[in-house]
Structures
1.
Amino acid sequence: MRPSRSSRARLAALLTGAAALLLTLGATPAQAADPPLRDLAAAKGKVMGTAVTGSKLTGTYGDIAGREFNALTPGNAMKWGSVEPTRGTFNWAEADQIVAFAEAHGQQVRGHTLVWHSQNPSWLTNGSWTPAQLGQLMNDHIATEVGRYKGRLATWDVVNEPFNEDGTYRQTLWYNGLGADYIAQALTAARAADPSAKLYINDYNVEGVNAKSTALYNLVKSLKERGVPIDGVGLQAHLILGQVPSTLQQNIQRFADLGVDVAITELDIRMQLPSDSAKLTQQAADYKAVMNACLAVSRCVGVTVWGFTDSDSWIPSTFPGQGAATPYDENYAPKPAYRAIAESLGGGTTTPPPMDECTATYSVTSQWNTGFTGQVRIACSGAALSSWKVGWTYGAGQQLTQAWNASCTQSGAAVTCSNASYNATVPDGGSVTFGFNGSWNGSNPVPTVTLG
Ligand code: XIL
């Protein structure tokens, strides 16, 4: 028989009520009791930042970005190709949006990046310029972009990735046109455009002591000696699982000893996909090692992750087959790496919520004048059961009359059901459902079900 409109409506209401009563085995919302990373970092006088995509700064992504981090870096929005795709035509929308979001959330902004060989507009890279023209273009670009945000940005990555792996200068548009002194010129122009911003040179594979980081070290030393404005060195730290350089802290310290700040600017730790719990545990240890190296050096101002969620990471598209590089998974669940960061910052002392859980959901699937049919679904995600038992207490005199796919007993108001021999196992990602009939009188409220 087709249910009447009103009984269908009532059934919908019952199912909604059942969903609200979904119970989680062993989960406690202890995460909520932990202070956000930004508060832990601030208590230590450190930056805990993330790269962001402006268009995503709403909903859960925006909530986490605002709650957990005290600094933002636009992942792409401030690059030359983003802000001036056509010569003389500027698009500041995403950059402005990120700066406004940061100001509304009391966050610093790290400007990224002014002078780089990559993500430049084609009019710039395809043009043929005399050295004088190129120098003018660079200076004007810096004056325009740094000037736009004057007084509002904490930091600029003025020059990005100037070195080859062997420590020689990368042959770029800038180096080829202006020589190595383009770096000093860019820094000088940035200082003139915003005297309050900290000016950095930023590069990758310069985290440990090696030929490339030594070249960067020698450059910073000579810039300091010449009086060129240089405030800091950015170590990008796009790392590989299990390969945090053992000389990271020593390297940070040697830059600090030159009289500049150091920042970890683009931390992510990639792994071969799929991830598993052993890899995520290793990744947590790696994140903690990076945090601890920075925390151990007073001039290391802090750490920025290059995207906080695996759903907003450049890794999968740049390194095929690799990913899971950030502290939150694609569904915004904090990974062990999140907790490792919290612990390194002195938090994470409350019990973490289990990442893995099984849940039991009670619902009434049909109901008539004196009777009803119900079901309980037991579902697991990231966990599994080899046997199960659920219980509930009826609040309005309901009486179980029959059950299938489980053995159920009722004593007074208390019902207990355990698995049949053939459905004891609930695999990770799977579910088991059993059903029952009962009688009711007056009302038939959905009870609270416990699994365990
Ligand atoms: C990456 C962005 O995350 C990607 O979205 C983009 O497609 C390529 O650039 N070093 C840097 C960053 O300094 O600007 C790069 O960002 C990652 C490597």
2.
Amino acid sequence: MSKQVVLTGIKPTGMPHMGNYLGAIRPAIDMARDENVEARFFIADYHSLNSVRDAGTLRSYIYEVAAVWLAAGLDPQKTLIYKQSDVPETFELTTILMAFTAKGLMNRAHAYKAAVDANREKGQSEDHQINMGLYTYPVLMAADILLFDTNVVPVGKDQVQHVEMAQDIAGVINHNYKEDLLVIPKAQTSENLMTIPGLDGRKMSKSYDNHIPMFLPEKQLRKIIMKIVTNSQGLEEPKDPDTCNVFALYKLFSTPEEQADLAARYRAGGMGWGHAKQELFEKLNAEIAPMRAVYDELMADTTKIDAILADGARRAREVASRTITRMRKAVGVA
Ligand code: TRP
């Protein structure tokens, strides 16, 4: 059986948070360890340009994302890691895809529709502050995916529609030229890890400002964990683990035995919220602390990241140039 190509992109928009780590980074790195998988991870820097407009900021976000993935255990010898902007074939493929992308398809994209709705609500014109980068975002993302003959795209729920759009666009092209020209990708979301609760119990998200950044100094990490919202039950009262945000997060960092043990202590009473949070802090920190050390080292001298990304770009372009040559011939420009 040939290996499955698994590809995912991460937009550099600042330090990833625990929701990104648990929902995307950790499962993707686990998957990359699978011998039957050929994993490709990239930094979607041109996707960020739609919103990050300061060069220094974008540059440091790119390093942060690279350092996070490497610190979280990505092995650059085994797994391809590269920067989208280093693979210019992406943008040539985007041009080809554009010619086959219905404008109506883009009109239906959730992210674009949400921006239009937000404008309407504020009484602004529909197009206010919407650039073509946002509007055509799904085409660039389709190019990222299709360029690498990707079989599987591990993504959060919010990105599934984009992968479906890549399927649509590839389908139109295959139908026009030949059915096996582009590999049709599949989205993969992992059910149990899909919604990571934030400090207030809603989905962890930077836009709700309820997130736990991935690498905080220990003191600050503990402080933010102490802010997780709980109910007002007193120390002695028995507590329900299944409706508790602290427990929900604890589950993601512990073994089934540890979970059963903490659940029993919840139900027995005599354990306050401060204790539960302390347990969570310790578990979470035990997993994150070694990564934080690697992260700090990589960020202190970014030449190592530069070298890894340069090597990744070279290897990525070998694959990308084969696809683009195939596409150029297929459409008739070569
Ligand atoms: N749109 C994705 C996000 O915001 C990032 C991304 C860009 C991506 N290109 C991709 C993800 C290709 C998977 C495959 O999270």
